[in-house]
Structure formats: structure tokens, C-alpha cells
Design goal:
The chain has about 325 residues and is an alpha/beta fold. It has 12 helices and 11 strands. It folds into 2 domains: about 150 residues, Rossmann fold; about 160 residues, Aspartate/ornithine carbamoyltransferase (Rossmann fold, 3-Layer(aba) Sandwich), CATH 3.40.50.1370. The radius of gyration is 19 Å and the shape is globular.
């Protein structure tokens, strides 16, 4: 059975296939793709764009979505093998997941990192449990390691803007009130590499992405003619870039290097002055939600570079393509 919870499930050829389908259907919408089909959506964490776009994809094409919020209307789910279930998790995924598979044609899961470190995020325990026990295809709506549909929407937006994905792009760290998961930057890096982009990853020392993610991205870049450079020089990374992707993420727990105090990193917040270093035709991307004037300055989000709303719309287009691919694969 095929699942799509990580870019590795598609590989570079699969990424190109989904982007081509999404672009074609954006111009000529398909008909009742999902007639008599049900998508079960399981949310361990909140959502705005993800929930709305997945539901819209099903409903606009003749299908239906069942939305379940874990711990709010459903039992809390236990995913650990051998757990003594004497806490607040009343149902185990070993029973809960296959039961849902009896009702739905596919399952979509959203589960954030618990902040236990890069090594645990690499294991991606909750999404992995759904893959193990589901009797129907599983899609990721974000997990501890990746947010693959966001990465696809990001690259579709770049492709629409520049006519190709093989352009210089910058993934830059941005400040925040607290450490955030790495799923979004991981997926942008992996998807851009799978698309043959020249990627500059800019982050302060101590905020490196996990080595397993970097190794996977390097393999994709080698296969697609892409290139990846890592630097703590944000200005150099922005120079001549065709797309700037800013995202906050937490410090590395595998590098052994100390992370810089957040209060000392305010200068990393993208402003109009930062965007002036990029190429004339550069666009700015962010997955949303974004904390204005903390993570990204108003001058960028309200400026001519911003494509964040177009990018959010593209979630809908790539998701109906991946759902269709799994249901008919």
C-alpha cells in the first residue's frame, strides 16, 4: 500500500508528477474526482489552511471529509508499543487506526513534534504508527519530521513565478518567541532539492537542520542537478536569490553546538532591506501563520515580494493531486 507522509515517498520523479498535475488542474479543474470517497482527517494539533484546504479538496470534487480532533470529541490516542495505559490516553492506535480504515478510503494525520529532540523527530513516531496500522493510504498534514504538502505548494509557487524550479532560493531562519518544530524548513529543503534548485540555507550557529534531513536533501540535489550551501551569513545567502523562504525553527539537538540566545537574533527578521539584496524578480514565501514584526516585518508581508496567499492557495491544488494519486495508485 502506498502512503504519502514524506518527500521520500514520491522521490524527485514523483514530485514532478504531482506538480505537473496540480498546475494542470489549477488551469482546468477536474470533475468529481472523489465521488463516494471519504477522507478521515485526524488532528492531534490545530490547523487553519491545512484543514480548510483538505476539506475543500474533497468537497469540491464530490467526496466527503470526516474531521476528528484527538482529545476534543475523540479519545486521546496512545502510540507507544507496550505502554501501560493508565494515563489519559484511552485508546491505542493499534485498534483506533484500523477501525478508521473501515470507515474511510484514506486517512490524513496532523501531529507536531513534541520537542523531544531531533533524534525523536527523525523517528516520527505518531505518523509512523499510522503507517504501520492503517489498512488504507495515509497522508501527512504535517508531522514531527516533515510537512510535505507545504513543500509541494512552495515549489509550485516558485514554478508559477519563474517558469522553473531550477533557480536560486534562500531558506532563512527567522526569530520567534519560542523554539518551533523543523517540519516546514525540512520539507522546503527536501522538496527544493528534489526539484533541482540551488538552495542557500542560512541559520545562526546552533540552529542547523538535522544531519539525516541534510543527507537526504544532498542525495536529491545530486540526482536533479541541484546545489545546497549552508551558511550563517544571511546577507550572502540572499544575494541574487529568486525566492526567499523565511521560517522560525528551534536549535539543533544533534550538532553539539550551543544555540545563540533568541534575544540576540532579532536582526535575522526579514525586512524590506533584506529583500533588496535578493534578485529583482524575487518572491517571498512563508507557510503561515506568521507573527508580524517578530518573525517577518510588515514591509515584506505587505510588499511586492509577498506570495504567501498564493502559496496558501496552492496547498489545495497539490493536495487534490496527492489524494487522487493515492486513491488511484
Amino acid at each position: 500500500m502506498k502512503h504519502f507522509t514524506r518527500i521520500a515517498d514520491l522521490g524527485p520523479e514523483g514530485v514532478q508528477r504531482i506538480l505537473a498535475t496540480a498546475a494542470a488542474w489549477k488551469q482546468n479543474p477536474p470533475g468529481a474526482l472523489f465521488a463516494n470517497r471519504i477522507l478521515g482527517m485526524v488532528f492531534f494539533n490545530p490547523s487553519l489552511r491545512t484543514r480548510a484546504s483538505f476539506e475543500a479538496a474533497m468537497l469540491r470534487h464530490g467526496g466527503h471529509a470526516i474531521v476528528l480532533e484527538v482529545g476534543a470529541g475523540t479519545w486521546k490516542l496512545e502510540d507507544r508499543d507496550g505502554a501501560v495505559m493508565d494515563g489519559d490516553r484511552a485508546e491505542h492506535v493499534r485498534e483506533g487506526v484500523p477501525v478508521l480504515g473501515r470507515y474511510a478510503d484514506a486517512l490524513a494525520v496532523r501531529t507536531f513534534s513534541h520537542g523531544d529532540g531531533d533524534d525523536v523527530d527523525e523517528l516520527d513516531p505518531v505518523i509512523h504508527a499510522f503507517r504501520r496500522f492503517s489498512t488504507v493510504p495515509v497522508l501527512s498534514m504535517e508531522s514531527a519530521r516533515e510537512h510535505p504538502h507545504q513543500g509541494l505548494a512552495d515549489l509550485l509557487t516558485i514554478q508559477e513565478t519563474h517558469g522553473t524550479t531550477k533557480v536560486p532560493v534562500t531558506l532563512t531562519w527567522a526569530p520567534h518567541m519560542k523554539p518551533l518544530p523543523k517540519a516546514v524548513p525540512n520539507s522546503f529543503l527536501l522538496t527544493a532539492a528534489a526539484c533541482g534548485a540551488e538552495i542557500r540555507v542560512a541559520a545562526p550557529k546552533g540552529y542547523e537542520l538535522a544531519p539525516e534531513v541534510r543527507a537526504e536533501a544532498e542525495a536529491y540535489a545530486a540526482a536533479t542537478g541541484g546545489k545546497i550551501v549552508y551558511t550563517d551569513d544571511q546577507a550572502a545567502a540572499l544575494e541574487g536569490s529568486a525566492a526567499v523562504y523565511a521560517k522560525a525553527w528551534g536549535p539543533s539537538t544533534t550538532s553539539g553546538l550551543p544555540a545563540a540566545p533568541m534575544k540576540e537574533l532579532g536582526a535575522w527578521m526579514p525586512t524590506a532591506a533584506h529583500m533588496a539584496k535578493a534578485a529583482t524578480e524575487a518572491v517571498f514565501l512563508h507557510c503561515l501563520p506568521v507573527r508580524r514584526n517578530l518573525e517577518v516585518h510588515d514591509s515584506v508581508l505587505d510588499g511586492p515580494w509577498s506570495r504567501v496567499v498564493d502559496e496558501a492557495e496552492n496547498r489545495f491544488h497539490v493536495q487534490r493531486a496527492t489524494i487522487h494519486s493515492l486513491l488511484n495508485g
